[in-house]
Amino acid sequence: MFWIAGLIALAAAALCGFLHRVSRTRTRVMERTETLPVRDLRALHEAAADAAGAGHFRYRCEVAGQARAHKDGALRSQIAGLDCVWHRHKVTRKYEETYRDGNGNRKRRTRTEVVSEHATSTAFFVEDATGKMVIRPGEHTVVGAEKAVDRFDPHTAGGNSLSIGPLSLNLGGDGTIGFRHEEWIVRPGSRFFVHGEAGDGGGRLAIGAPEEGGVFVMSVKPEDELLRGERRKALLLGAGTGVLGVAAVVILVLAVIR
């Protein structure tokens, strides 16, 4: 028993250590990256295009301003039907299932499963006082996005189908208790911050996730608030790593003694 507890504590310490390193890396990268006006970023791109030609520009940067819909207009969120530039939804099914315990007795337990989850990848603009910049979100989420929907709908008789906007899902099975619907949106005009890589590989200058991997952050929170959060997270994870590491050593020593 001591061996198992010690190994669990050791694994938890290793996980905390890894997350601590990730958080510190994100903080350092964001601290060292300059927030540029859109005009200055475009000037850098033009100079690079004159020197090396189009399609070769890649520059890690940050831009802050207001979110604006792209040329095709605002999106409509899947569940609430609200105007937005980005949205994400998640639907979680809550259900009961029957199982047998170690003594062979039949029992019931409540479980959950995510049955639908989607975030939009449609490009949009961030606009500051000097111009607009295209943002390509990919499949990434937006930190601090407004939670427009958070409700639980009890399941009603008549099958296990579920409608999400224009989508209809056939879930199958039984024992469904209900569904939790969650939706996050970024409205046009919302304050917006992005840390990523500007590039013109797609034929037009835009900011998105770095091609070779690295930190990519989209947020409706300002950079200083994000950095405070990352520093606080790193501090807690560092303390957790130390505590769990010491606990693992003590438990494993006790296991050896016994």
Features:
258 residues; single chain; 3 helices; five-stranded mixed β-barrel; flat; four-stranded antiparallel sheet; alpha+beta
Written account of the structure:
The termini are close together. The chain is of the alpha+beta class. The chain is built from 3 helices and 14 strands.
What would you say about this model in short?
The protein is of the alpha+beta class. Helix content is 31%, strand content 38%. The longest helix has 35 residues.
Helix residue percentage: 25-40%
Which structural class matches the secondary elements?
alpha+beta
Order of strands, main sheet, comes to 1-6-7-13-12
Radius of gyration, CA atoms, in whole angstroms: 24 Å
Our measurement of the CA-to-CA distance between the termini, rounded to an integer number of angstroms, reads 11 Å
- The helix/strand order is HHEEEEEEEEEEEEEEH
* Average pLDDT figure: 85
Q: So how many helices?
A: 3
Topology, number of strands: 14
- Uncertain regions: pLDDT < 50 for 5+ in a row? none
Strand content: 35-45%
**Largest sheet features:** 5 strands, mixed, barrel
Form type: flat
How would the blueprint of this fold be written?
Layout: H1 2-32, H2 38-52, E1 58-68, E2 75-76, E3 83-84, E4 86-100, E5 106-119, E6 124-128, E7 131-135, E8 146-154, E9 161-164, E10 167-170, E11 176-186, E12 191-199, E13 206-208, E14 217-219, H3 223-257
Parallel strand pairs: 7-13
Antiparallel strand pairs: 1-6, 1-12, 2-3, 4-5, 4-11, 6-7, 8-11, 9-10, 12-13, 12-14
